[in-house]
Amino acid sequence: MLAREGAAGASVRAIAAEAGVSPGLVGHYFEGVDALVAATYAHVGAQVDAALDAALEGAGDDPRARLEAYLTASFAPSIARGELLATWVAFWSLTASRHDIARQHDEQYARFRSRLEALLGECGVAAGRRRAQAIALTALVDGLWLELCLSPAVLSPADVARIVREHAGLTIRG
């Protein structure tokens, strides 16, 4: 629903109708649409985190392979899709007006950057450079993810993965 209607289209009644349940049942579990949207944000964030964690688990022990897997996991078809983009846009639109959503956003990105800083450390990036490099790589991943979701005919997952690998390599060498 968030992907299709945005935050403005989310109501307990509309969500209940789409789920095929009564509004009372939704109200039993959530104190209104705001709580339901916050729970949805947490759920979607956990799904993305799980995909990133799975990529790390499959990367083995080599620090560079682990960094590459973490950075490029965002371009997997399960994450780089228009429906997820529309859902994130709905969440992002709420960060200015909803402190709970802004807090969730900050926590989500802090987890990503913290893990990225640790991976950069494993690759030998000096402690004093890790935070700035993690922020820069996060911005690169976000921008490429956004472009991949918006224009999949222009960029492929392989294209964006190559770009990220090249920039991550510069970060490690630089």
Q: Please tell me the CATH architecture by its name.
A: Orthogonal Bundle
CATH homologous superfamily placement: Tetracycline Repressor, domain 2
**Helix fraction by DSSP (H/I, runs of at least 4):** over 70%
Radius of gyration: 18 Å
Overall geometric form: elongated
Runs in which pLDDT lies below 50 for 5 or more consecutive residues are none
Strand content: under 5%
Mean pLDDT: 87
Number of strands: 0
Taking the sheet with the most strands, its summary is: none
Structure overview:
The protein is mostly helical and 174 residues long. The protein has one domain: Tetracycline Repressor, domain 2 (Orthogonal Bundle). It has helices at residues 2-5, 12-19, 23-29, 33-57, 63-72, 82-94, 99-122, 127-150, 157-173. The protein is elongated, with a radius of gyration of 18 Å.
Q: What's a quick, concise take on this entry?
A:
With 174 residues, the chain is mostly helical.
How are the elements arranged and paired?
Blueprint: H1 2-5, H2 12-19, H3 23-29, H4 33-57, H5 63-72, H6 82-94, H7 99-122, H8 127-150, H9 157-173
Annotation keywords:
single chain; mainly alpha; Tetracycline Repressor, domain 2; about 75% helix; about 0% strand; elongated
